[in-house]
Amino acid sequence: MAATMKNALIKLHIAVFLWGFTGVLGRLISLNEGLLVWYRMLFTVVVLFALMYSKKQIQKVEGNFRWQLVGTGGLLALHWVFFYGSIKYSNVSIALTCYSSSGLFTALLEPLMTRKKVVLQELLLGTLAIAGIYLIFHFDPQYKTGIVLGLMCTLLSSIFSILNKKQLEVVTPRTLMLYELGGGFLLLTAAMPLYLHMFPAVSLLPTGIDTFWLIIMSLFCTILAMDLSLQALKYLTAFTQNLTLNLEPVYGIILAFVVYHENKHLSDGFYLGFFLILLAVVLQTLRIVRPSQKKPQVFGV
């Protein structure tokens, strides 16, 4: 069992590393956040369907469960729109750091949605991470809009992961991914006329270089990363996944420093907050890899 947990953690960390590139790629792509997500989902669904069809891996889903997956895909699409909106209104580092709130959101929401008992350690670690985001918000108020969008993105991400944990008991990870991404794409397509009316775009079509980055994002940062994360989620809790997602800022911020030199525009408060986030992730990882003989202290819900 310990080996299985370690393998799941390795897959999850590879997925998070790949997701760390999405912020940098999102800033490279000139499309607005809504169109960026629409094209990302379009390319991903086409490639994933072709791959699964050729290997005869498509699993038929019927009844209400199919619509549940479509609805979950809508949450994913909205989560991505908020994420790239956060980048546009602040920068890559701030948007990625907002993932620090995912641990606290999940620690509070997972017991309500799954009847799982509240774990005191998870609440404390989630609070430690949220303290990090508070420090960044306090010392860098010029990024307020970006931070609010980032927190909304993270709330949706937490709900998405909790729902995925339950849905994986019914279908395979790739089937889940295909239906969710396909459903999210259809819902976003239906909403796009209103979205573009409210937020007009300079161009509706991606440039040649935009298309290249969108394909990279679809193949590696979406299909491969989601496949690995869903495999890991079969053995890990949604809280562990969401708290581990806080490592995404580590990889993404390092890339943003190298590519965009964002370190020149961040205050000392950012680094102090970032340290608290990283500390929370390390402590939770140690809880999983080296489980205590004691049962965790829990409160009934």
Tell me about this structure:
The structure is a single chain. The chain has 301 residues and is an all-alpha fold. It has one domain. Helices cover 77% and strands 1% of the residues. The chain contains twelve helices and two strands. Strands 1-2 form a two-stranded antiparallel ribbon. The chain starts with a helix and ends with a strand. The relative contact order is 0.22.
Features:
about 0% strand; mainly alpha; two-stranded antiparallel sheet; 2 strands
- Uncertain regions: pLDDT < 50 for 5+ in a row? 292-301
By DSSP (H or I, 4+ residues per run), the number of helices equals 12
Order of helices and strands: HHHHHEHHHHHHHE
Strand percentage, roughly?
A: under 5%
Q: Helix/strand-derived class?
A: mainly alpha
Number of domain units: 1
- Assign a percent range to the helix content: over 70%
What distance separates the N and C termini? 28 Å
**Rg of Cα set:** 19 Å
CA-based shape = globular
Sheet of most strands:
2 strands, antiparallel
Q: Quick check: average pLDDT?
A: 83
Spatial ordering of strands, largest sheet:
1-2
**How many runs of DSSP E, i.e. beta strands?**
2
